[in-house]
């Protein structure tokens, strides 16, 4: 993102919540700029997405950045698949920052076992009814609409799930904030749907296309997560380097201790690896929604963030425990290994594609 483009963000305090950041991004036209068609219909421009996530990460809390990331990468592109006037109007309001949008896939059941979800949609000829509960959803307490992944049939078959656009003020919708100081600024919470009746025009996309649509759009969230992870690690390493270089030790500073420099350098290697991986795979994910590439990015981002924040946390010593310090950030950043697909789940996806991944690593055949 060009420097002048981030000026609207500088007007906000660093303590701004996710919904405040979203409103500022929308007012400045920065949300629409992330998409190739300027309207979320044809997916993200990876360079612009990385630029915006980096700008938000540099200024606001991890929770506020999470709020923006989920919406930019997944919720808005998913909503843009809707063709009805209600979907179009909701998208317009989200693009302009006048409304936030929650993507409610995780249910009361294990999030890593998505096809076990219980939230149900009953479809009639001209109406539908949603009943169920979604837990740990970013933007819940501020959302104007929920994109709800529901089942229209019992069983786990991949065609049994459908997305429904549920207005937060519809009778039967109840939200409550998650009991989490770490993620309050993301608007994280739980939402229940008690026989919420809506017009059939609130079905998003085609009935039975819920899971394929989810797979397509969660891929972009995994790309966004890896881009954001690079920005976060770079920021933390920059701060840590400054801290070490300014902290007197013996005749020099902590930065002059070989053991410290080597641990720091190992972090640089990890971030450069992730950065290179993002560069190599971003187009595949952004333009082709490649699930293996997306899983690779997610599987690399979680452990990289954990390694860098744990190492830097140690190198900050007692100062790391200050309010708002690196140890707090480290606890929040553990989300990189869980949200949007736990490390173990994406490693499973990658293992499923082992043969094609290995084939892609073959050297060019120069023997002929
Ligand atoms: C702050 C925050 C914001 C969130 N925002 C959203 C949102 O906007 N929308 C949304 O839909 N969801 C959201 N989530 C939910 C998130 O996507 C889930 O937490 C995630 O999918 C994991 O599900 P779970 O927490 O139910 O973990 P569980 O399914 O209970 O799994 C717990 C742990 O068990 C282990 N495990 C699970 N399966 C396997 C396996 N196959 N092999 C080995 N180990 C395994 C892993 O270590 C895993 O972390 C959010 C969560 C948080 C904390």
Can you give keywords for this protein?
single chain, 368 residues, alpha+beta, Butyryl-Coa Dehydrogenase, subunit A, domain 1, Butyryl-CoA Dehydrogenase, subunit A, domain 3, 4-stranded mixed sheet, 4-stranded antiparallel sheet, 11 helices, 10 strands, 16% strand, globular, binds flavin-adenine dinucleotide
What general form does the structure show? globular
SSE ordering: HHHHHEEEEEEEEHEEHHHHH
Strand order of the largest sheet: 1-4-5-8
Which CATH top level class of the largest domain fits? Mainly Alpha
How many helical elements?
11
Alpha-beta content class: alpha+beta
CATH architecture annotation name of the largest domain = Up-down Bundle
Please summarize the sheet with the most strands.
Answer: 4 strands, mixed
Radius of gyration: 21 Å
Task: Name the beta content range.
Answer: 15-25%
The CATH fourth-level homologous superfamily of the largest domain:
Butyryl-CoA Dehydrogenase, subunit A, domain 3
Query: What is the CATH topology of the largest domain?
Result: Butyryl-CoA Dehydrogenase, subunit A, domain 3
Q: What is the tally of beta strands?
A: 10
Number of domains: 3
């Amino acid at each position: 993102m060009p420097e002048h483009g981030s000026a609207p963000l500088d007007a906000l305090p660093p303590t701004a919540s996710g919904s405040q950041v979203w409103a500022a991004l929308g007012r400045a036209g920065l949300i629409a700029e992330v998409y190739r068609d300027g309207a979320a219909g044809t997916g993200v421009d990876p360079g612009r997405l990385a630029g915006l996530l980096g700008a938000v990460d540099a200024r606001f809390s991890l929770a506020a950045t999470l709020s923006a990331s989920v919406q930019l990468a997944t919720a808005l592109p998913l909503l843009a698949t809707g063709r009805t006037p209600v979907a179009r109007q909701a998208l317009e309001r989200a693009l302009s920052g006048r409304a936030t949008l929650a993507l409610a896939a995780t249910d009361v059941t294990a999030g890593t076992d998505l096809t076990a979800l219980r939230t149900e949609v009953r479809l009639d000829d001209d109406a539908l009814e949603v009943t169920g509960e979604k837990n740990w959803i970013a933007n819940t307490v501020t959302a104007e609409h929920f994109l709800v992944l529901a089942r229209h049939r019992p069983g786990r078959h991949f065609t049994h799930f459908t997305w429904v656009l549920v207005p937060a003020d519809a009778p039967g919708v109840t939200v409550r904030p998650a009991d989490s100081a770490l993620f309050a600024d993301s608007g994280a919470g739980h939402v229940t749907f008690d026989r919420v009746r809506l017009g059939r025009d609130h079905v998003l996309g085609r009935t039975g296309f819920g899971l394929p649509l989810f797979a397509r759009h969660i891929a972009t969230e995994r790309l966004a997560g890896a881009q954001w992870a690079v920005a976060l690690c770079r920021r933390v390493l920059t701060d840590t380097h400054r801290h070490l270089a300014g902290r007197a030790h013996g005749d020099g500073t902590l930065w002059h201790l070989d053991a410290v420099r080597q641990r720091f350098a190992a972090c640089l290697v990890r971030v450069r690896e992730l950065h290179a991986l993002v560069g190599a795979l971003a187009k595949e994910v952004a333009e082709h929604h490649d699930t293996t590439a997306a899983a690779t990015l997610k599987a690399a981002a979680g452990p990289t963030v954990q390694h860098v924040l744990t190492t830097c946390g140690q190198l900050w010593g007692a100062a790391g425990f200050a309010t708002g310090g690196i140890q707090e950030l480290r606890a929040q950043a553990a989300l990189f290994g869980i949200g949007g697909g736990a490390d173990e789940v994406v490693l499973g996806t990658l293992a499923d594609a082992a043969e094609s991944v290995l084939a892609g690593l073959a050297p060019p055949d120069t023997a002929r």
